[in-house]
Amino acid sequence: MTGAGAAPVYAAAVCAGAAAWLLAGRDADLRRARLLLAGGVVDPGGPEALWERVAAAVRGRLGREWLCAPVAVLLAVLGESVLPLAAGAVAVPLVRRRLRAGERRRERDRRTDAVVALCGAVAGELRAGRQPGQALFAAAGTGGLGGAEAEVMAAARFGGDVPEALRRAAREPGADGLAGVAACWRVAVDGGAGLAAGLDRLEGALRAERDQRENLRAQLAGAWATVALLALLPVAGLLIGSALGAGPLRVLLHTPAGLGCLLVGGLLEGAGLLWARRIVRRGEGS
Question: Where do the Type II secretion system protein GspF domain residues begin and end (predicted)?
Answer without folding.
Answer: 121-240
